Amino acid sequence: MSDRQPRVGRQHHHVEWWVVSAWLSLAVLLVVGLVGAVGI
């Protein structure tokens, strides 16, 4: 078990590109929606 732990830790530390892009697109959609609602 202790043999596998370092590998899992390394994987967890690695940031997936699709997670970042998903959160970025979500943030952009939120900003666009807010701007549209305010009417700027």
From TrEMBL:
Keywords: Membrane, Transmembrane, Transmembrane helix. This is Molybdopterin oxidoreductase, iron sulfur subunit. The chain crosses the membrane at residues 20-39. It comes from Cellulomonas fimi (strain ATCC 484 / DSM 20113 / JCM 1341 / CCUG 24087 / LMG 16345 / NBRC 15513 / NCIMB 8980 / NCTC 7547 / NRS-133).
